[in-house]
Design goal:
Elements: E1 4-8, H1 14-29, H2 37-47, E2 53-59, E3 62-69, E4 74-79, H3 88-98, E5 103-109, H4 113-121, E6 125-129, E7 139-145
Antiparallel strand pairs: 1-2, 2-3, 3-4, 5-7, 6-7
Length: 151
Amino acid sequence: MGETVIRPYESAYAEKVVRLWRASKEEAIGQKEIHSVESHVHFLDEMLPKAYQIHLAFEDQEVVGLVVFNAEELNQLYVAPEHQGKGIGQQLLDFSKAHSGGSLFLYTFEVNRNAQRFYEKNGFVEIGRGYENEENLPDIKYEWRESGTSE
């Protein structure tokens, strides 16, 4: 296993990133992606950069993970299914925490128990449920606050 390197997203990686994202999400929630690959690439290249930083995890020059965040929100965090359990998600989460404003919120699907355990282990606490999404699956809203930060 090579060293994991986190670098800013470049659109040259769009299709590889979208394939990773879709595979990881489908495995996590047991549901096929509802958007076409083309619209997913458009979302990644044109919509997300307007409000979020996008970074990729590389291992041996291969894209193995994705994190999308800003100072307040962790919007997406996905690791290729074949690379899960190696600490890549932890590195991406730690990176987003370090570049946050001292707190982050996120939504995860209620069916995604692995994500819930991961975020709870990393100091996120549940602050709400039942948020709407395109997948029509119940969500859990989580929040993390850096030690010493207040409301």
